[in-house]
Amino acid sequence: MGYEAQNVFLWEEGVKTPQSGEFIKLKDGKIEVPDRPIIPFIEGDGIGPEITPAMILVVNKAVEKTYGGSKEIQWVEVLAGDKAEENTGERLPQETLDFLKEAVVGIKGPLGTPVGKGARSINSALRRAFDFYSAVRPVQWMGQATPIPNPGRVDVVVFRENTDDVYMGIEFFSGTDEAKKVRDFLLGEMGVKESALPEDVGITVKPMSEFKTKRHVRKALRYALESGRKTVAVIGKGNIMKATEGAFINWAFEVAQEPEFKDKVITDPEAEPGDGQVKLVKVITDQMLMQLVLRPEAYDVIIAQNLNGDYVSDLAASLIGGPGFVPSGNIGGGYALFESTHGTAYDIAGQGIANPLSITLSGAMMLEYLGWKESAEKIYDAVKSSFEDRVGTPDIVAGFKRQGIEARQLSTMEYAQEIAQRIN
Ligand code: NAD
């Protein structure tokens, strides 16, 4: 049962490095995965202690059924969040960062950010420490109840840039000396008109870098080519924000001309991609939001800036029932950390009713990243089969009931066991 498995090494006064495993190696941005890779996991706050063992149970079963013992993950608990604070006095101990770095690939449950203590988000700290520059969110319908008809049309992967844009926190509040200085500079030195910057403005800076954009675009294009996807859309409001979102789109098309992509990425809007090719198109963000609802099958991969990626990935997830049903991966130059997309759900923590799918599907996504695709497929098939038979946690059951369909309600761990049983 989850943590009771022999290949799970829980934190006890420190991180336990098992002799039975080996670390994944990182060479030139590519991972080399041993048969017994050491994978660190952060249990997470709130519902974390319920959903994380559920994920481990399912992933272990899929790997065992695929490789019959010749491959096995060695799970090592590292601490962050509430559990870390209780045990070490820090919310993100250095020991955790060091171990995650050594292990290259890891997975985490949700982490809470205490309000009003001046605490910084651990998620942002991790993102910065590992330069996870792409947040990848595959959105695929598996059979759950959804708010739209024909949800089978939804199968899209959103690549959200993660290290740029308005998230850099360069902000000057209205009425401060800083805002006045920036305003004076823009009016005095840069020829900006007073009507655009009245005295009471607050200012947020939106930086967008060629280097950061291009590495993100390359990652998305490589993914599209490797996974046989066909239509890749780069989005943005380039007509309004020419120096940032417009530049982002132009840089994406420049990447398509690089030797690695020149013959594989076609950019002629009238042409169809052949075998081993993808087509890159540009779509204005508001158009994309409409298209996702009206014609979700039109795009296979969406390349987005940080802010647009936030909107688009949540809308895409909502089409298939919400973020509880989609996985997520934070990926940088080889380093990767997979995670549930929802938060800590403190309101239902400890009741055994949390839906474990987001972190479980993130576990499957991690298996794909390791190159263990067959195991990942087994998890997807088992989840689909559970929906066909109408079983799930209370939120899943409630979704079916809203559509007048009876369903059988299970606890978090019972549902994980049900999925595991369907893996063969
Ligand atoms: P939340 O996702 O925790 O909860 C929103 C609602 O969805 C709640 O009603 C909750 O019960 C429900 N819900 C969420 N996950 C569920 C699941 N797996 N099964 C069933 N129901 C589920 O969002 P919030 O309340 O805005 O955030 C709570 C905390 O989580 C905050 O401290 C926030 O910073 C943090 N957070 C962390 C992450 C992360 O670690 N990646 C992401 C989002 C929010």
Characteristics:
424 residues; alpha/beta; Isopropylmalate Dehydrogenase; 3 domains; twelve-stranded mixed sheet; two-stranded antiparallel sheet; 38% helix; binds nicotinamide-adenine-dinucleotide
Describe the biggest sheet? Answer: 12 strands, mixed
CATH class of the largest domain: Alpha Beta
The helical percent reads: 25-40%
Poorly predicted segments? none
Oligomer: single chain
Computed CA radius of gyration, to the nearest angstrom: 22 Å
How many strand segments? 18
Ligand types: nicotinamide-adenine-dinucleotide
Tell me what you see in this structure:
The chain is an alpha/beta fold. It has three domains: about 1-135 and about 325-424, Isopropylmalate Dehydrogenase (3-Layer(aba) Sandwich), CATH 3.40.718.10; about 145-165 and about 210-320, Isopropylmalate Dehydrogenase; about 170-205, no CATH class. It has helices spanning about 50-65, 80-90, 95-105, 120-130, 175-190, 210-225, 240-255, 285-295, 305-320, 355-370, 375-390, 395-400, 410-420; strands at about 10, 25, 30, 40, 75, 105-110, 135-140, 155-160, 170, 205, 230-235, 265, 280-285, 300-305, 325-330, 335-340, 390, 410. The protein has a twelve-stranded mixed sheet with strand order 1-5-4-6-16-15-7-8-14-11-13-12, sandwiched between helices. Helix 1 packs parallel to helix 13, helix 8 (about 285-295) runs parallel beside helix 9 (about 305-320) and helix 11 (about 375-390) packs across helix 13. The two termini are about 15 Å apart.
